[in-house]
Design brief:
Belongs to the CRISPR-associated endoribonuclease Cas2 protein family. 34% of the residues lie in helices and 28% in strands. A four-stranded antiparallel sheet has the order 2-3-1-4. The chain is globular and about 35 Å long.
């Protein structure tokens, strides 16, 4: 798994909603405009970036993403000292 944090500053409500929907398809919202994603492949991040780039205005909108290595993910906590949640290694349906 590859772990990413996405955040954005988008003024237009419709665009902000559409970007949020894209990110929610791949991960969890942890704040209003901050999302944590656990992706299986590099193809997923490429697909997300393509979708977002089609709908944002690069002159007014700011979308950022950060890759979290395994070590940085293990060291990540919130202010209450709780570790950042990780998805289960195996999901049985």
């Amino acid at each position: 798994m590859k772990y990413y944090v996405f955040c954005f500053d988008i003024a237009d409500n419709k665009v902000r909603y559409r970007v949020s929907r894209i990110l929610l398809d791949y991960g969890d919202r942890v704040q209003g405009s901050v999302f944590e994603l656990a992706l299986k492949s590099h193809h997923d991040i490429t697909k997300i970036l393509e979708k977002i780039n089609k709908i944002i205005n690069p002159m007014t909108d700011d979308v950022r993403y950060y890759y979290l290595s395994g070590e940085s993910l293990r060291r990540s906590k919130n202010l209450q000292g709780e570790r950042v949640k990780q998805p289960p290694a195996i999901i049985i349906v």
